[in-house]
Design goal:
Elements: E1 5-7, H1 8-17, E2 23-28, E3 36-43, E4 48-55, E5 61-64, E6 69-71, E7 90-92, E8 97-100, E9 108-112, E10 117-121, E11 137-142, E12 148-152, E13 158-164, E14 167-172, E15 177-178, H2 190-193, E16 197-200, E17 206-209, E18 214-219, E19 224-230, E20 242-245, E21 251-254, E22 262-264, E23 271-273, E24 281-287, E25 304-307, E26 310-311, E27 315-321, E28 327-335, E29 340-348, E30 352-358, E31 365-372, E32 378-386
Parallel strand pairs: 5-10, 15-19, 26-32
Antiparallel strand pairs: 1-30, 2-3, 2-24, 3-4, 5-6, 7-8, 8-9, 9-10, 11-12, 12-13, 13-14, 16-17, 17-18, 18-19, 20-21, 21-22, 22-23, 25-27, 27-30, 28-29, 28-31, 31-32
Length: 388
């Protein structure tokens, strides 16, 4: 069993080395109008740019899913992988892919951050026209279930982009309507609810950050958007165009108008300015992190915990900081049919344990983890989602 166990410092050092490999920005040119410049890695802790992944001048290798072959796109149209009008970006950590849509197009592009190859997903589900601002897809993020979600300006299309084998499937989940409590802060009105970006939480809810600074919580079950407040601590004319959860569990917001980045506490909606580059025109942000998830914290304060709950790198971490826990603890992993797929005994010394456990032999899916103490009492029960 020792081959499954790794010290925690390897996780932390790896997180430092890859600090710019899980947060990305869609950046525009320094102009008043929206003109795409590049997708780049971004260090959200200090507000500085990293490697440019793909630019408006890059050589684009585009493969059509429906055509099953390479395509040459017309760069003078809105339907191409380097269209000047871009406002959406999501990061699929399981495939190291950036997912995006040109603002005036129904095309969906899957850009591999390693090979720089692009998969074009043509579809008839996304109904986008250049002259209808209500139809423009301006918000996109990865959901906790691993699928990509996108919402148009007016909330009349809530898209899910999922993978079935090697094929991507696009479906329309329906129309998102205002919660009755929203009043004047309508999700479907241009002055209060349009544009911006969105993030996901560990319960697969979504938070839409409108350009106005208003924040709405979108329930996938009820297809309603509930106004939860307005961001405080940002300039009055600040345009919120990008949002993504950082490694601390807070939301980083950015503006297309060349303003500073801000870090927002999702519970209080209070914002604080982030140092670093001040004049970037950022149209969208994307990361692998989720709100309300233990995966977003490198500093563990709970007495007993397992993290992350969405496992996209094949490992989980067991944390104990409780002197009342003595001897061995037992970890058991069950699939959703109740079958026990993994058992481990872990030694707690002086109430402390920091242990990484390899789950790479588990197929993608949901699992339940039980941890029992030496008396057989269950001390922790937690659900995780393993993705490839």
């Amino acid at each position: 069993m020792k081959k499954h166990l790794f010290p925690l410092f390897l996780l932390l050092s790896g997180a430092t080395i890859n600090a710019q490999q899980d947060f990305f920005a869609l950046v525009g040119k320094d102009t008043p109008s929206i003109i795409f410049n590049d997708f780049r890695a971004f260090d959200a802790t200090n507000g500085t740019s990293g490697e440019k992944i793909f630019t408006s001048d890059s050589s684009a290798k585009v493969f059509s899913q429906s055509g099953k072959g390479s395509v040459t796109e017309d760069k003078n149209t809105y339907n191409n992988s380097q269209a000047i009008t871009m406002a959406t970006l999501a990061y699929d950590a399981s495939g190291n892919n950036l997912v995006y849509m040109p603002m005036f197009s129904s095309n969906i592009y899957i850009l591999n951050t390693k090979t720089r190859e692009i998969n074009l997903i043509e579809n008839n589900v996304a109904r986008v026209t250049s002259c209808d601002i209500n139809s423009h897809i301006t918000r996109m993020t990865t959901g906790y279930d691993g699928n990509i979600y996108a919402i148009n300006n007016a909330g009349t299309q809530f898209l899910k982009i999922s993978r079935n084998g090697n094929q991507y499937v696009v479906s329309d989940l329906g129309i998102i309507r205002d919660d009755v409590s929203n009043g004047k802060n309508s999700f479907t009105t241009i002055e209060t609810g349009f544009g911006g970006d969105m993030v996901a939480d560990a319960d697969n809810n979504f938070y839409v950050f409108a350009t106005s600074g208003n924040v709405f919580k979108v329930s996938t079950k009820e297809l309603k958007a509930k106004f939860i407040g307005r961001i405080s601590g940002i300039p009055e004319n600040y345009s919120v165009n990008g949002s993504a959860v950082n490694s601390k569990g807070n939301v980083v917001i950015a503006s297309a108008k060349g303003a500073a980045l801000y870090e927002v506490d999702l519970k209080t909606l209070k914002a604080g300015e982030i140092g670093g580059e001040k004049n970037l025109h950022i149209y969208d942000l994307a990361s692998k992190y989720f709100a309300n998830d233990r995966a977003v914290s490198n500093i563990i304060s709970a007495n007993l915990d397992i993290y992350p709950t969405r496992v996209d790198e094949g490992v989980i971490n067991i944390q104990v900081n409780d002197r009342s826990v003595k001897g061995d603890i037992r970890m058991e992993v069950f699939d959703m049919s109740g079958k026990n797929v993994l058992k481990l005994n872990l030694r707690v010394k002086d109430g402390l344990l920091n242990q990484q456990v390899d789950l790479k032999n588990l197929v993608s899916g949901a699992y339940l983890i039980n941890i029992t103490d030496e008396s057989g009492k269950i001390v922790l029960n937690k659900k995780i989602l393993v993705t490839e």
